[in-house]
Amino acid sequence: MEDDVWSPPSVLLAVDLVILTLRESHLHVLLVERGEDPFRGMPALPGGFLSHDGEEILDAAHRELSEETALAAGWVHLEQLSVYGDSGRDPRGRVVSVAHLAIAPGLPDPVAGTDATDATWVPAEAVLSGEVELAFDHRRIATDGIERARTKLEFSALATAFCREHFTIAELQQVYEAVWGTELDTRNFYRKVQAAKGFIVPAGTDRRTTGGRPAQLYRAGPNTVLFPPLIRPAPSGTDENTRGKEE
Predict the structure, then answer these.
(1) Cα–Cα distance measured from residue 225 to residue 198, given in angstroms and rounded to the nearest whole number
(2) What is the average pLDDT score of the chain?
(3) 32 in Cβ contact with 59 (< 8 Å)
(4) Longest C-alpha distance within the chain, in Å?
(5) Would you give the DSSP letter of residue 162?
């Protein structure tokens, strides 16, 4: 009896992008309006299939960043988020998505391209709450991306990716408050940032605030890991023993 001949299943590979920035001191995620089926007309994360079998996944992520949003990728923090491969996630067949998290400061209004008819910044909370319904499993991917950013702000220097080259500690605090969705005590925040050696370093120049004294400018320091970490405050109603809290 001859052995059955195995043939590989037909699987398509795609990339999706969770692009985050701060606009008017609030965390926003970039969404596009799908211009074709499935889910024509619905909001979705920017993304698409590999253009050919020799394209590297990271190259595909950079390409989609440019093609679907017309945003330059060179100065955007980009990292792989996770792989999403549930069998029923795409009605066109078996599609595995390698999702990426992208962060940059002050990103401009996007311009849609390729299979998107519109692109816009949407408050992250509207996505997390389900107020804005997304195509495919993109709400799950967006939620994972936002939570990745929230967690990495505790233990890494990722917050500086939301800032321009030179920034004040007050501007850095705005990043933490926007991403975490909570107000922080200014004096405690200043003390903890200064205690995290190598997190930020003086830029050597001052910026004068409106009606106040000059504010010291900083830039990202050499250390990418925060020690001690800046622990996220426990949400209201959460057992304070399960998370760090503002002291």
Answers:
(1) 9
(2) 89
(3) no
(4) 89
(5) G
HSE-CB at 145 with a 13 A cutoff on CA atoms is: 33
| 246 touches 192 (CB < 8 A) | no
- Asked if 84 and 97 touch (Cβ cutoff 8 Å), the reply is yes
DSSP string, 199-241: SEEEEEEEEEPTTS-EEEEEEE-S-SB-SS--PPPPPTTS-GG
pLDDT digits (tens, 9 = 90+) for 77-126: 999 999 999 999 999 999 999 999 999 998 878 776 656 678 899 999 99
HEC secondary structure over 79-141 = EEEEEECCCCCCCCCCEEEEEEEEECCCCCCCCCCCCEEEEEEEEHHHHHCCCCCCCCCHHHH
Decide the pairing of beta strands 200-208 and 43-44: unpaired
Note the Cα 52 to chain centre separation in Å: 26
pTM of the entire predicted model:
0.89
Token pair for 30: 């970039």
